[in-house]
Amino acid sequence: MRIYIDSANIEDITRIIAKFPVDGVTTNPSLLAREKNNPLEQLKKIKGVLEEQMELHAQVLSQNAEDMISEAEYMHAQLGKETFIKIPVTHEGIKAMKYLNKSGVNITATAIYTPMQAVMAAKAGAKWTAPYVNRLDMIGANGVQVAIDIHNILTKMNVKTELLAASFKNVEQILKLAEVGVGSVTVAPELLEQLLYHPLTDKAVADFTNDFESITAKGTTMRHL
Ligand code: E4P
Fold first, then answer.
1. Residue 199 located in a structural domain
2. Would the pTM of this model clear 0.70, i.e. be above it?
3. CA nearest ligand 1 atom 9, residue
4. What range does the domain containing 56 cover?
């Protein structure tokens, strides 16, 4: 499973990259707004802390296809390769995807709430499709099931398009997708850090340390012996 950091905060991104095996960063205009910096400059800063091969996903703000295309081309030129341009699955967005796919711009179809929207994005050439799992749960739908349905449909369509599930609020939502072999998720830093949490793991480490130190001294490791 590919895991992305859903954040535009440099400190969070740097901390997570240093310790976890992640594949890139996804942003959206709301996340960028929280950083109170010029959004394009912030994206360049993020790009600067990514390791080689890590992807950066950034969204266009234009509403009509022609403007989306020129904005996407501008962002691609400014941010370089390994950048994926996020485009919402509106009529104008699908129209822009069709064109951008032919001109070699990497596309992430975003703001997806139904499998049919993902099918259309796949047909238009998007590499990633991003359904919003928790936002679906919040309106009484089943976000995990929608993501699984999209994953299954894309697999059957035999296209290059894959699922990049987004908008998570708990570990269970992510685990359910891992169980069915979903390819990618993007997760906020605070939830990413919860993925490893179990109190008995911390207790096990503490117990092992205490036992070891009972025959050595506090702070002793194998390197001290
Ligand atoms: C990613 O593409 C989305 O913008 C993001 O995951 C939405 O997450 P939220 O529902 O927590 O805002």
1. no
2. yes
3. 167
4. 2-190
